[in-house]
Amino acid sequence: MSWSMVSDEMCKAVTASSKVWTMPELVTLIVRGTGWTDWARLCRLNKVASEAARARLYSGHYFGATIRPLLSILAPMERIGDSGFMFTRPLETSDWTRFLGYSKHVIYMYFSDDHMIAPETFCVMDATRPPQDIFPSLRDFADMRVSPCSNYLHNMTFHKRLREFRIRSWIAPLRLLQTLRKAANSLRKLELGTYTMVPDKLTIVELLALIPELHSIDTLSLPSLFVTSDVFDALSRSVSLQEFHLLCSEFDRNPPPPDNSLHYAFRLPADGFSKLCSLTIEHRSPRPHSLLLVTGMKPNMTRLSVQFSCAPDFTGLKKYHAILSGGFSSLTELFITVSQSAEKHEISDSGHAFGLLQPLLVLEHLENFSFNYNAPVSLKDEHIEKMAQAWPLLQYFVFCSDVFYDVHQTELTLACLLSFAEHCPRIDFLMFAIDTTLDPPRQPTDDTVFPPNFSTLTVTNSPILDITSVATYIADLLPISVRLECAVHLDFEGRDIDRSERWESAILLVDALHQASARSLRRSLRAPVSLTAKA
């Protein structure tokens, strides 16, 4: 074979190879089987990949260990001591020219603690980068690290097209909220810090300066300690904010400080929060009802989550429920958590305890309801009946799921389940304690039918003695498709060693009875017919 023929064959091979790298689908298949180290090396050497192919490859997600191969396109990297990976040589203009051809396609980046990049790397990049945006297509950026060098990374990622930003924490000398203002106008979702963060005075001032510049924000999450009356008032003037969530404290690990400045008021004026539909707040005052001020109705508000972290008095909590029911009549989701209580004798009396919940019965649109107290709250079957009648759209019901119930700490019997079957045709999930040692005053009949979508009954921390009678009642009531669970909290296992075992036996017996029960089979077959007739 002549040299000219060999040359022609080589040219054809090169041309064919080049064509391969212009086809996004083939490039994707090639890279799929390539390790991250080889992938980065390939990106540095390959100069013929088409824009379409690059866009297909680099518009994906970069997180954790995949950050390093992306940066390795800029220059080779190696690990330097414990600080992480650093470039092995100075960066040149040609490196940036090559890197920008790839980085311009990146849409999402997530920096976690396992990214293994030395802080100095970002200092070098920020010092040598060209004037244009490094990641112009970046829309979603999360920084879960805690580093004093984060500012250099943020200089390269904050721009006027960024839509979402999340950060776990930041430390001095970084003044994050001032740096963030360059991207404020385009941000739609912003999550700053965790519940453990305690701001200095300058941070609050920076936050007050940032809020008016968040023109497009629709979802905002802040540590509860970041919010003052001034901050809440500033947010109320937002015309785009739809969801505002305070990152609430975990009381056992982070007791509320005694500072009275934290007893600020949540004022919702008639013309404020015009688009707000979801709100999560925390109260650190024993008189929270005096700090919730709702003027006029808030028809857009459909979801509310409230945590009480400082032992609210019983009367004040009842008044609080009346205020929120009057101002947020369109609620479909309501989650209430009382982390610390002051008057436990009130909630041990069923009549008094239900009085705490009674103001909430006017919320006729309620679909999801969760009420958690740090002590057992006693109720009667008739109280469940009233709630089921008041909330016919109910799908999800959780009540005091994190506390241990001894015998006679609630008056609820298994018969209370009948109320959900009779009045809540959309019920899907139930989780609350029942004292199964009490004789149920009512028995299920063939007409007692749970809806087909009912999936789970969790009798959390419930007392049980007679396994057979409990299993027989439940098997007679529940459809075969429903999952029965009993979650005895790990913190309480020592208080009743046999409880978990008895419930496990009861659940097995329910399964066996379902397989043999003609009534269960009849009910399963007729349930859709009954529901259709009612509709």
Distinctive features:
19 strands; alpha/beta; 535 residues; 36% helix; disordered C terminus; 15-stranded parallel β-sheet; disordered N terminus
Mean pLDDT: 83
Strand order of the largest sheet: 1-4-5-6-7-8-9-11-13-14-15-16-17-18-19
Strand fraction:
15-25%
For the secondary structure, the number of strands is 19
- Could you estimate the helical fraction of the residues in percent? 25-40%
Low-pLDDT segments, ≥5 res: 3-14, 251-256, 530-535
Alpha-carbon Rg, integer: 30 Å
Instruction: Please count the helical segments.
Output: 19
Mass-distribution shape: globular
> What distance separates the N and C termini?
85 Å
Structural class: alpha/beta
Largest sheet: 15 strands, parallel
Written overview of the protein:
The radius of gyration is 30 Å and the shape is globular. 36% of the residues lie in helices and 15% in strands. Helix 7 (119-128) links the parallel strand 4 (108-111) and strand 5. The protein has helices at 3-20, 24-32, 36-45, 51-58, 67-72, 93-103, 119-128, 150-157, 176-179, 201-210, 229-236, 314-327, 344-347, 350-357, 381-390, 417-423, 467-477, 499-516, 518-534, and strands at 61-63, 77-80, 84-87, 108-111, 140-143, 164-167, 189-192, 219-223, 243-247, 266-268, 278-283, 292-294, 303-308, 333-338, 368-373, 396-399, 429-432, 456-458, 483-485. Helix 7 packs across helix 8 (150-157) and helix 17 (467-477) packs across helix 18 (499-516). The protein is α/β, with parallel strands linked by helices and 535 residues long. The protein has 19 helices and 19 strands. It has a domain at 20-187. The chain has a 15-stranded parallel beta sheet, with no helix packed on it. Strands 2-3 form a two-stranded antiparallel sheet. The N and C termini lie far apart (85 Å). This is F-box domain-containing protein. InterPro entries: LRR_dom_sf (IPR032675). It comes from Sistotremastrum suecicum HHB10207 ss-3.
